[in-house]
């Protein structure tokens, strides 16, 4: 028996004042029995709307639900099926109910963030660096502006990150909705670059692995010609950056380096955001080979607005505070 819309119920009651039950049923294409029930309910209660229902009773008890929540908190990466096996309620339920119970208790399924592993020694170094370079220690925006942030980055020709698509049911294997993958990403290129407050920047392609001699060549051709007196070079603790020969090279060239940069700290190096934006724009051009990928990366790198880089510099004080608040652990940056 089809359900009658509330507005239609009100019209039926009004029409019953002048029409018979059969006539009203024909007019609104409902059964006479439904019209009679509406009239009886209206005469008894003065209302024709449905009352709130309790719904289907829960299969599990509140105690069982709390047990499931505890198990999920103890093992946040477990699937619904794995949690059900460990939970073992007296009444069998589906994994969908497991997900619903967890969702009602604030535990929603989400894609976990990928962050580098940090040990205790690295946590202490991150805290020490953030304290030494906080706003309280005089590291204002004006002082950060003297730091040139640099890093290497590798870019695959065909990235394999997850993509969402809208497709009809049962069409998962339709080629139109498949994300094509290539072994080893179809090849990749290595680049080195640096950024400076105000928009000054440079990028170069590096062939092969970067050792100390190759890193010094990169600095000699892509950084030193634009280096200004008083600027400080930020670099991570890679062996090619901290080797004895590189240290002597930088000293000979009178380039000051930002000391004690902590390992596993991409959230503190603002050039990482530049790499991310550059890759997104380069992949949009759909390069067919590594040379086209390099040209796309170079174009995208220099097309990034100066204001975008300046805002990254302005966030450095907040980044140091975030590291301190997280006691050296991961931050949202």
TrEMBL record:
<dbReference type="InterPro" id="IPR047655">
    <property type="entry name" value="Transpos_IS630-like"/>
</dbReference>
<dbReference type="GO" id="GO:0015074">
    <property type="term" value="P:DNA integration"/>
</dbReference>
<feature type="domain" description="Transposase Tc1-like">
    <location>
        <begin position="65"/>
        <end position="133"/>
    </location>
</feature>
<dbReference type="InterPro" id="IPR002492">
    <property type="entry name" value="Transposase_Tc1-like"/>
</dbReference>
<dbReference type="GO" id="GO:0003677">
    <property type="term" value="F:DNA binding"/>
</dbReference>
<dbReference type="InterPro" id="IPR009057">
    <property type="entry name" value="Homeodomain-like_sf"/>
</dbReference>
<dbReference type="Pfam" id="PF01498">
    <property type="entry name" value="HTH_Tnp_Tc3_2"/>
</dbReference>
<dbReference type="InterPro" id="IPR052338">
    <property type="entry name" value="Transposase_5"/>
</dbReference>
<dbReference type="Pfam" id="PF13384">
    <property type="entry name" value="HTH_23"/>
</dbReference>
<dbReference type="InterPro" id="IPR036397">
    <property type="entry name" value="RNaseH_sf"/>
</dbReference>
<dbReference type="Pfam" id="PF13358">
    <property type="entry name" value="DDE_3"/>
</dbReference>
<protein>
    <recommendedName>
        <fullName>Tc1-like transposase DDE domain-containing protein</fullName>
    </recommendedName>
</protein>
<dbReference type="InterPro" id="IPR038717">
    <property type="entry name" value="Tc1-like_DDE_dom"/>
</dbReference>
<dbReference type="GO" id="GO:0006313">
    <property type="term" value="P:DNA transposition"/>
</dbReference>
<feature type="domain" description="Tc1-like transposase DDE">
    <location>
        <begin position="149"/>
        <end position="293"/>
    </location>
</feature>
């Amino acid at each position: 028996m089809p359900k009658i819309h509330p507005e239609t119920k009100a019209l039926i009651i009004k029409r019953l004042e002048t029409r018979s039950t059969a006539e009203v049923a024909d007019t609104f294409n409902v059964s006479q029995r439904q019209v009679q029930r509406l009239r009886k309910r209206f005469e008894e209660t003065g209302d024709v709307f449905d009352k709130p229902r309790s719904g289907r009773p829960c299969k599990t008890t509140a105690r069982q639900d709390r047990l499931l929540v505890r198990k999920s908190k103890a093992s946040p990466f477990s699937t619904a099926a794995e949690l059900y096996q460990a939970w073992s309620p007296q009444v069998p339920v589906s994994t969908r109910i497991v997900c619903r119970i967890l969702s009602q208790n604030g535990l929603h399924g989400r894609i976990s963030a990928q962050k580098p592993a940090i040990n205790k020694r690295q946590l202490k170094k991150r805290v020490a660096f953030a304290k030494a370079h906080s706003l309280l220690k005089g590291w204002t925006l004006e002082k950060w502006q003297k730091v040139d942030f640099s890093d290497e980055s590798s870019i695959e020709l065909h990235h394999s990150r997850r993509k969402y698509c809208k497709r009809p049911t049962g069409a998962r294997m339709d080629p139109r909705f498949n994300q094509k993958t290539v072994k080893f990403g179809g090849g990749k290129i290595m680049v080195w670059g640096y950024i400076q407050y105000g928009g000054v920047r440079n990028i170069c392609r590096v062939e092969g692995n970067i050792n100390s001699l190759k890193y010094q060549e990169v600095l000699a051709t892509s950084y030193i010609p634009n280096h200004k007196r008083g600027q400080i070079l930020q670099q991570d603790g890679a062996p090619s950056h901290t080797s004895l020969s590189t240290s002597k090279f930088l000293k000979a060239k009178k380039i000051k380096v930002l000391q004690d940069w902590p390992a596993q700290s991409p959230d503190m190096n603002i050039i990482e955001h530049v790499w991310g934006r550059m890759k997104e724009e380069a992949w949009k051009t759909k390069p067919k080979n590594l040379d086209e990928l390099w040209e796309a990366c170079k174009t995208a790198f220099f097309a990034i607005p100066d204001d975008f880089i300046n805002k990254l510099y302005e966030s450095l004080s907040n980044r140091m505070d975030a590291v301190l608040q997280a006691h050296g652990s991961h931050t949202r940056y």
